[in-house]
Specification:
Blueprint (H helix, E strand, L loop, with lengths): L1 E2 L11 H6 L1 E8 L5 H11 L8 H5 L6 H9 L2 H5 L2 E6 L2 E6 L8 H8 L4 E7 L6 H12 L4 E6 L8 H12 L2 E4 L1 E4 L7 E4 L4 E4 L13 E2 L1 H10 L1 H16 L6 H5 L3 E6 L8 H10 L7 E6 L2 E5 L7 E9 L8 E9 L1 E3 L2 E5 L4 E5 L3 E4 L2 E4 L2 E3 L3 E6 L8 E3 L5 E2 L3 E3 L3 E7 L5 H14 L3 E5 L6 E4 L2 H15 L3 E5 L4 E6 L3 H11 L3 E3 L5 E5 L2 H10 L4 E3 L1 E3 L7
Parallel strand pairs: 1-14, 2-4, 2-5, 5-6, 6-12, 7-12
Antiparallel strand pairs: 3-4, 8-9, 9-10, 10-11, 13-14, 13-25, 15-16, 15-24, 16-23, 17-22, 18-19, 18-24, 20-21, 20-23, 26-35, 27-29, 27-30, 28-29, 28-32, 31-33, 31-34, 32-33
Helix pairs in contact: 2-12, 13-14
The structure holds guanosine-5',3'-tetraphosphate.
C-alpha cells in the first residue's frame, strides 16, 4: 500500500527553489556512440572545464582488461569521473557517469536508479545497438524521461527517418524530433529547429569551444536554401512526413517516458550540444518524489521539498588508496538539505552516523561539500558500514524502493593458492560483495562460497583486487550454475519443505535471503512447476530482506 505524504513543503526558505533548479541525469549509449565526447562538450558548455580532452584523457580502456585494471588501480580517476556537477543558466546539473563496458551493466543499472532523466546517444551510422536496448529497458522500469541525441551527422550516416523508425520499433518509445538535419556528411548544413522555425548552421571543422552556433531565421534561411536546394528539399519532404504522422513534442508524454524529444548533431564538433542543455533545463524534471518503505510493505512518497534530510546509497567505490580500506558511498539526496557534520540515522543498523567529510563532485575535481539538496550526489567516506541500498535519514525509519540486484548469469568459485589465507579471502569477498563488485552466495550445504556476476570482467577485477588489497591469491573456477533465483513463499511450512528437499541447490545471499541456484534452465522450469506456491524472483532490491 502506498500513501501520499502528508508532510507540507518545508518552511525553510529556498529549499523549494534549490530543488526546482536541479537536474540529475545520466548519459546512456552503446560504446563508441559518443558518450564521452558529449559528456566533455556538456561540461565545456557548462563552463566546468576549459579545455576539450579532459574527460577523454581519463577514459579507461574499454575493451582490454589489462588497460582497465591499470586505470582502475589509480582508483581516484574513476571515483572523480563518476559524478560531475556544474551550473548551467542557473540550473545545477548533476551528470552521473555510467560504465561503458557491458560487463559492468549492473553498476549502470544502479546509477540509473539515482537519476531523474537520461540522455540517450545514438550513433547515426549504426542506429540502435545492443547496449542501448538493455539500458532503455532499465529506464523504462522507472519511466525515466529520455532525451535522444543522434550523433555524428558530420559523417555519411543512415537516413533520419529510418533512424527514428528504428528507435520507435526497437526501443518502443515514440519520437518527437525537435531538430532535423539538413543534409549529412560533407553536405551537412546544420539542423532545422522545428519548434523555433530557425536553422542552426553547421560549419565543419569549426570547433568553437563554448561559442554559439550561428542561428538563422527568415531571409537568412532563404539564402541558405538557395545555395543547397537538394538538402532543403529533402528535409522539407521528411519533415512533412514526420508532422503528418503527428510526431509533435508533448511534455507530459516525455515526462512519463512514452515519448523522447530527438536532436541531431555532432558532439565532436560541439554541434547540437547546447540544445541538449537547454532541453534538460526546460523539460527534464527536477528531483522527483520517491517511494520508500516505511514499515513492512507500507510505502509513502518522500517529496524533495520535505525539510528532513533523506537519501540512499546507490554505488560504493573503494577509495583511491588501496592500503586504506575506506570507501566512498555515492549517496543520492532525496529530500531536505545536507550540511556538513550533520547527524543522520542509518536505517539498516539503527545507528546514528555523523556525516562530516562528504564530498560533492565538481566536474573533475572533488571538493568538500558544504551543502547539498535533493538531486545532488554526495560522496560519503566510510569503512564498510554503508552498503548499496542503505538509507540515511534525519530520524524517520524508511528504505527507498527500487534499487535492484539482478540474478547473475555467470558463476565462479574462488580457490585459494595458499589455503592459510581463507580468513582474508572471506573478508575480501564479504567486503567486495557489500560494495556490489560481485554477488556472494553461501551454500546451505557445506561448500565454498559462490560468486555471481553479470559480466566476466567483474571476476577479473575481483581477482585482481583480492590480490592487491587483501593479499589473497585465488584462482577463479567456473561453477556449474546456470542462474540464480531468490525464493519466497507465503506459506512458511511449504517453504521449509522446499528448503529441505532442495538444500544442495540453495544458498544465502549477503542479506540472508534464500537463493535457488539452478544448473540449467530445464531444471529451473521443472522446479518451478513442482513447487507452484514458491515464488522465484529474477531481481530483488538492495538492502531489502525479501518478505515471505
Ligand atoms: P563512447 O564514450 O560512447 O564510447 O564514445 P566516444 O565519445 O569515445 O566516441 C567514440 C568515437 O566516436 C571517437 O573516435 C570519437 O572521436 C568519435 N566521435 C564522437 N562524436 C563524433 C561526431 O560527432 N562525429 C564524428 N565523426 N565522430 C565522433 P575514436 O576514433 O574512437 O577516438 P578518438 O581517436 O577520436 O579519440
Amino acid at each position: 500500500m502506498s500513501t501520499e505524504s502528508t508532510e507540507t513543503a518545508a518552511p525553510a526558505s529556498g529549499l523549494g527553489r534549490q530543488v526546482a533548479r536541479r537536474r540529475t541525469f545520466a548519459i546512456i549509449s552503446h560504446p563508441d556512440a559518443g558518450k564521452t565526447t558529449l559528456t566533455e562538450k556538456l561540461l565545456l558548455f557548462g563552463g566546468a572545464i576549459q579545455m576539450a580532452g579532459t574527460v577523454k584523457a581519463r577514459k579507461s580502456g574499454r575493451y582490454a582488461t589489462s588497460d582497465w585494471l591499470e586505470v582502475e588501480k589509480q582508483r581516484g580517476i574513476s571515483v572523480a569521473s563518476s559524478v560531475m556537477q556544474f551550473e548551467y543558466d542557473d540550473c545545477v546539473i548533476n551528470l552521473l557517469d555510467t560504465p561503458g563496458h557491458k560487463d559492468f551493466s549492473e553498476d549502470t543499472y544502479r546509477v540509473l536508479t539515482a537519476v531523474d532523466a537520461a540522455v540517450m546517444v545514438v550513433d547515426a551510422a549504426k542506429g540502435v545497438e545492443e547496449q542501448t536496448i538493455k539500458l532503455l529497458e532499465v529506464c523504462r522500469l522507472r519511466h525515466t524521461p529520455i532525451i535522444t541525441f543522434i550523433n555524428k551527422l558530420d559523417r555519411e550516416v543512415r537516413e533520419p527517418l529510418e533512424l527514428l523508425d528504428e528507435i520507435e520499433s526497437v526501443l518502443k518509445i515514440n519520437c518527437a524530433p525537435v531538430t532535423w538535419p539538413i543534409g549529412m556528411g560533407k553536405s551537412f548544413q546544420g539542423v532545422y529547429h522545428l519548434l523555433d522555425d530557425s536553422v542552426l548552421r553547421f560549419v565543419p571543422g569549426e570547433e568553437k569551444a563554448g561559442g554559439d552556433v550561428e542561428v538563422l531565421r527568415g531571409q537568412a534561411i532563404h539564402y541558405l536554401r538557395e545555395r543547397h536546394p537538394m538538402e532543403f528539399e529533402r528535409m522539407d519532404g521528411e519533415i512533412e512526413l514526420v508532422r503528418g504522422a503527428g510526431a509533435t513534442f508533448h511534455i507530459d508524454d516525455f515526462l512519463e517516458g512514452y515519448q523522447t524529444p530527438v536532436f541531431f548533431g555532432s558532439a565532436i564538433n560541439n554541434f547540437g550540444v547546447r540544445e541538449i542543455l537547454r532541453a534538460l533545463k526546460a523539460w527534464a524534471p527536477p528531483p522527483q518524489p520517491r517511494e520508500a518503505y516505511v514499515s513492512g510493505t507500507e510505502t509513502r512518497f518522500v517529496h524533495p521539498e520535505e525539510a528532513p534530510f533523506t537519501g540512499f546509497v546507490f554505488k560504493i567505490q573503494a577509495n583511491m588508496d588501496p592500503n586504506h580500506r575506506d570507501r566512498i558511498a555515492f549517496f543520492r539526496v532525496c529530500s531536505g538539505k545536507y550540511s556538513q557534520g550533520m547527524k543522520v540515522r542509518h536505517r539498516r543498523t539503527g545507528k546514528e552516523i555523523k556525516v562530516a567529510n562528504a564530498v560533492v563532485f565538481m566536474a573533475n575535481e572533488r571538493t568538500r561539500s558544504e551543502e547539498a539538496y535533493a538531486g545532488d550526489i554526495i560522496g560519503i567516506h566510510n569503512h564498510g558500514q554503508l552498503q548499496i541500498g542503505d538509507a540515511l535519514t534525519e530520524g524517520e525509519n524508511l528504505a527507498f524502493k527500487g534499487i535492484p540486484y539482478f540474478a547473475p548469469d555467470l558463476f565462479c568459485r574462488a580457490r585459494l593458492r595458499d589455503p592459510l589465507k581463507s580468513k582474508q579471502l572471506n573478508k575480501g569477498l564479504q567486503e567486495l560483495g557489500e560494495e556490489g563488485a560481485i554477488q556472494v552466495f553461501t551454500p546451505m550445504a557445506a561448500g565454498m562460497v559462490l560468486l555471481g556476476a553479470v559480466g566476466q570482467l567483474q571476476f577479473e577485477v575481483v581477482e585482481h583486487r583480492l590480490k592487491t588489497e587483501y593479499g589473497v591469491d585465488a584462482v577463479f573456477e567456473r561453477a556449474d550454475v546456470h542462474t540464480a533465483r531468490w525464493v519466497t513463499c507465503p506459506d512458511a511450512v511449504h517453504l521449509a519443505e522446499f528448503v529441505k528437499a532442495n538444500q544442495v541447490r540453495l544458498a544465502h545471499d549477503v542479506d540472508d535471503n534464500v537463493v535457488y541456484l539452478s544448473p540449467n534452465s530445464v531444471n529451473l522450469g521443472l522446479t518451478m512447476e513442482r513447487w507452484p506456491k514458491v515464488v522465484f524472483h529474477a531481481t530483488r532490491e538492495h538492502g531489502q530482506k525479501l518478505a515471505d
